[in-house]
Amino acid sequence: MGSFYQRKYNSLQYTFAWNLAALLAFIPANLYPIMVVYQLGVPKEATILSGIGEFIDHGLYPIAVIIFTASIIVPLMKIIGLFVLVYKVHTGMRLKPNKHSKIYHILEFLGPWSMLDVFVVALMVTIVELGFVTSVAAGPAINYFTITVIFTMFAANSFDPRLLWDKKEIQSKEKNALKTT
């Protein structure tokens, strides 16, 4: 019986490659400054974690939680979740079918929320622009963070969720293709 949709060719390889690239971009996204605040011409750099600390110091706990969730938790959950799904298909290990489905749908849902941090920095650059007294500029981490989000979206899109339910012989073809690359 034919399927209505075409299969995604080399799904595991593409998903793994995009996800690995996302993980590698996630590291400098958290090490480099995500924004630079200039007060009277003096720059003060802020990483994602130091920015979260600033929000906590000023008692802005809800914003700190949102930024921490969108900038750290969501991308990591998506990266780890995709690695888990690729591993499950590659090894042939099985979860209950509804567990596979839940993991995949959670990863799909998380995708757009990862861009919240980029939106917050863009919003702060727009709002805090106060002329010569104070200004805000995006730091180099914003590029890496954006790349992380885009690559995780590519990874999730390249994953063929039908592989989670395929019979062993289709999975062994994917495994063999992964081994040869």
Describe the structure.
- The longest helix is centred in the middle third of the chain and has 31 residues, at 61-91.
- The chain has one domain.
- It has helices spanning 11-31, 48-57, 61-91, 97-110, 116-127, 141-158, 168-180; strands at residues 35-39, 42-46, 134-138.
- The chain has 181 residues and is mainly alpha-helical.
- It contains 7 helices and 3 strands, in the order αββααααβαα.
- The radius of gyration is 20 Å and the shape is elongated.
- The protein has a 3-stranded antiparallel sheet.
Q: What is the number of helical segments per DSSP (H or I, 4+ residues)?
A: 7
Helix content: 55-70%
Q: What's the overall geometry?
A: elongated
Radius of gyration: 20 Å
Enumerate the strands of the largest sheet in spatial order, edge to edge or round the barrel: 2-1-3
Structural class: mainly alpha
- Please identify the oligomeric state: single chain
Biggest sheet record: 3 strands, antiparallel
Overall mean pLDDT stands at: 79
Number of strands: 3
Uncertain residue segments: none
Strand percentage lies at: 5-15%
End-to-end separation in angstroms reads: 30 Å
Number of domains: 1
Order of helices and strands: HEEHHHHEHH
Summarize the structure.
By secondary structure, the chain is mainly α.
Topology:
Blueprint: H1 11-31, E1 35-39, E2 42-46, H2 48-57, H3 61-91, H4 97-110, H5 116-127, E3 134-138, H6 141-158, H7 168-180
Attribute tags:
PqiA-like, three-stranded antiparallel β-sheet, 7 helices, elongated, 181 residues, mainly alpha, cell inner membrane, cell membrane
